[in-house]
Design brief:
single chain; alpha+beta; 6-stranded mixed barrel
Length: 815
């Protein structure tokens, strides 16, 4: 029986080639989007599931007030937690994100030159409890290998990279020098961990090497309960059956008891975060990957829904052409159930073909949405057993949801009416209003996408071209591999002086950072004003030299530039207008010569006030800022600006800079970036979202226009005799086209009316995240509506031309 169903279904699909192709194209795109959704969800929920007792593993993070948080904790906290908090079995403390740009030197023990390697990711300072949280197979050594000062444990792949011609046994005891000053001994080798985790570390330096040698202060700051660094990570495994709420109460009490009342507003308490929550959290680590995943999941669902609506429209539009077939089937004894099964069989076959094509389209759509797909998710994720089960389930669900309504409509045809050809005249029984509602829904979605894309593009253009208070063109910036712990900046000073002698370079500056970049550094200051000491928290900080203002074109409102005098007991600082007003000064001149306490020095003197400039992206308002005279202890970013606007001159100057750089920093890559590109990178999330929405908008319009074809086919079939009579009576082709498109114009207008407030709401909500934003121009809405209408009319007229040009004699004879 089922063999006959599928044979008939296959013949029906071949007979209606145009409709089948349109259906397959739309559904394959939708199914492919749904497939990517499934693989993303499965991938994102697979992080750190392999650890034994992972439900008992937590990260301790620091909570600031009700909303703000930092994934790190104070350096002094882990020991106190281990000794004073009950209910915790293991406390593992490690420092990450501090050594990825480290210089790695492999002494060979002979007179030959030592081997120097480029920066290697995955370097952490860890205690011996790290491997109790993340157990691994030891090739040589054991977890106690990290107990001693200056010990280092390597993964097998890193060991092979560092010592390519040696056995693992011979590598044990070898010396590795990090950043010219951290000398370590290989005390263990572990197998490579290819499991999905957020903790992809492969070089483990003993934590004592950091805490007992003076490196701690320079890397993560002076130890203290109010000094929180995100790289200071603490993972704990609680006892079986321990009460999480009780441990959180103890943590809060421990933190608050160690924080003075004066600084109590600065940091609140530590709190447990489940290991399973770390990857998908939306609060602690800034912008969450999960936010991007939600965007693509929502868009994928919408695209699949549009494709399913298309299928319903096209199938019901074709139903009038199959009315006689249904009448014959019912006359020969087919009941309603058999006809429903027949049409569901056709739907299943169509979904099956679409799924095969979706797998073919998968690589293309994967690349299209690559900016929003997790970087750890690979293209071969498709080749999993679970994917087959998911596709089969999706086919069955879509077959039922999308195919049931058309099957019910056609199975309800009465045999006599069907054989007499009266079905096409029964408008009410066809529920035209439902089909038209679905068309309206499709164009509402497509138009909302289109309007939002316009708004996002307009905002991106605005933020990239807005005056941020500094120069960003013809400037190049790059970091130098100086290491402040070594106590010397000899190379950077040589490079700095040599660069200024290059003919194409106008000026150069050494600083801790450019005026605006993706990240920030803050400090706390105090100021005595009107007999009271005022504490200023979250003051943004830069260390600059005396060329900084000139290179970046900052405006000095009062006073003079900083003096670079490393012997000065009280350094010069510049402050911006916002900090000036926050302190309480009424004018820039009033601030000159006043003293501030804190920051990079016990006290500093205000030498000048600069005009406000944006120190972060335009999603943020201007923050208070202090610019310290550079003591060369905290700065290794060099910025240069060119004399001319000629690109060829820039290339020549950069070659000269690269030559000097390679001489001073042997083996290091000269990695520079034009500053206008740095500013553009501040909006990388918004730019990726805009790209994604453009793709989704294109797919939505494409699918919606195919849905229009279905409606035009239905109208043309329903009004065949009317078209013939009108042509006999002298109607022209434009008049026939107008007749067929008039109703569709009303549907597009209705879709516009519905889409405008929806698009305005989402556009307004998105713009609300920006402190500085473009206007939500009224003209965007009618332009999008007119563009959508013209696109729809072009599709309708192209498809309707066949009916409009048909011979009326043949039409009426057939009727």
């Amino acid at each position: 029986m089922f063999k006959n169903y599928f044979k008939t279904a296959f013949r029906s699909l071949l007979k209606n080639k145009a409709t089948s192709i349109i259906n397959v194209l739309g559904l394959s795109i939708g199914i492919c989007a749904a497939l990517i959704i499934f693989l993303i969800i499965k991938h994102e929920n697979s992080f750190d599931k392999w650890e034994p007792d992972n439900d008992r593993i937590f990260r301790i993070f620091t909570q600031y007030g009700p909303k703000d948080a930092n994934s790190g904790i104070p350096m002094v906290a882990p020991k106190e937690i281990n000794s004073k908090i009950t209910g915790i079995d293991v406390v593992a403390h490690f420092i990450n994100q501090s050594m990825d740009d480290a210089t790695i030197e492999i002494p060979n023990g002979r007179m030959e030159k030592s081997k120097t390697l480029n920066a290697t990711p995955g370097i952490v300072f860890a205690d011996d409890n790290y491997f109790k949280i993340f157990p691994t197979k030891w090739t040589f050594g054991n977890p106690t290998s990290l107990e001693k000062l200056n010990n280092v444990v390597l993964s097998e792949s890193i060991a092979r990279k560092f010592f390519p011609n040696m056995t693992f046994q011979n590598i044990m005891g070898k010396t590795i020098v990090f950043n010219d000053s951290i000398q370590t001994i290989v005390s263990g080798i572990v197998s490579d961990d290819n499991r999905i985790t957020d903790f992809n570390n492969n070089i483990f330096i003993s934590l004592k090497t950091l805490t007992e040698t003076g490196l701690e202060t320079s890397l993560v700051g002076t130890p203290g309960w109010t000094n929180i660094n995100g790289s200071s990570q603490c993972l704990v495994k609680i006892n079986d059956g321990a009460n999480v709420k009780s441990i959180n109460r103890q943590l809060k009490q421990l933190f608050t008891s160690n924080i003075t009342k004066e600084s109590n507003d600065f940091v609140d308490f530590g709190i447990l975060q489940p290991l399973s929550n770390i990857h998908l959290n939306t609060m602690i680590d800034g912008e969450s990957a999960n936010k991007n995943n939600r965007n693509i999941i929502l868009l994928g669902i919408v695209i699949l829904l549009l494709a399913s609506i298309n299928f319903v429209n096209l199938t019901t539009a074709q139903s009038s052409l199959r009315a006689k077939e249904i009448g014959v089937r019912k006359t020969f004894g087919s009941d309603k159930r058999q006809i429903i099964v027949q049409f569901l069989s056709e739907t299943f076959l169509l979904m099956l073909v679409s799924s095969v094509l979706a797998c073919v389209l998968y690589p293309a759509l994967f690349q299209l949405f690559k900016g929003f797909i997790p970087q750890t998710m690979k293209l071969n994720a498709l080749l999993q057993v679970w994917t087959l089960f998911y596709l089969l389930g999706l086919i069955l669900i879509l077959t039922f949801l999308a195919g049931l309504y058309p099957a019910l409509v056609m199975s309800n045809y009465k045999p006599i009416q069907a054989l007499k050809g009266k079905i096409i005249h029964s408008g009410k029984s066809e529920k035209v209003w439902l089909r038209q509602s679905l068309i309206v829904f499709q164009f509402v979605v497509a138009q909302v996408f289109l309007i939002i894309v316009f708004v996002i593009s307009k905002q991106i253009h605005y933020v990239l071209n807005k005056d941020m208070g500094f120069k960003k063109n013809a400037i190049v910036s790059f970091y130098t591999p100086e290491w402040r712990e070594s106590g010397t900046h000899k190379n950077i000073n040589i490079l700095y002086n040599e660069i200024k002698n290059i003919p194409g370079i106008r000026n150069a500056s050494i600083a801790s950072g450019t005026p605006a970049f993706n990240g920030f550094s803050t400090t706390s200051l105090s100021y005595g004003y009107k007999g009271k000491i005022h504490d200023l928290d979250y003051v943004h900080l830069r260390n600059i030299d005396d060329n900084y203002i000139d290179v970046f074109g900052l405006t000095l409102l009062a006073g003079k530039n900083v003096r670079i005098d490393t012997s000065a007991k009280i350094p010069d600082v510049l402050i911006n207008e916002t900090l000036m007003k926050q302190v309480g000064f009424t004018s820039p001149n009033e601030a000159i010569g006043k003293y501030l306490m804190g920051g990079n020095a016990d006290s500093s003197i205000i030498s000048g006030v600069v005009k406000d400039f944006n120190i972060m992206s335009l999603t943020n308002s201007i923050k208070p800022m202090i610019l310290f005279a550079n003591d060369f202890g905290y700065a290794n970013k060099l910025s240069i600006n060119f004399r001319s606007n000629n690109v060829e001159d820039w290339k020549k100057a950069l070659k000269d800079v690269e030559f000097l750089y390679s001489k001073l920093y042997v083996g290091k890559t000269f990695d520079y970036q034009f500053y206008d590109k740095t500013i553009e990178s501040l909006y990388s999330t918004q730019i990726r979202l805009n790209t994604l929405l453009k793709c989704a908008t294109g797919l939505s319009i494409f699918i919606s226009c195919m849905g229009l074809i279905g409606l035009v086919m239905f109208l043309a079939n329903q009004r065949t005799k009317e078209i013939g009579i009108r042509k006999v009576l002298g109607a022209s082709i434009p008049q026939i086209l107008s007749l067929l498109s008039k109703n569709l114009v009303r549907l597009i207008v209705l879709a516009s009316v519905i889409s405008f407030p929806i698009a305005w709401y989402y556009s307004h909500s998105w713009l609300a995240d920006f402190a500085y934003k473009t206007t939500l121009s009224w003209w965007i809405f009618p332009i999008c509506a007119i563009g959508m209408l013209l696109t729809a009319l072009l599709i309708v007229w192209t498809w309707s031309m066949k009916a409009a040009k048909s011979n009326p004699a043949e039409i009426l004879r057939t009727e």
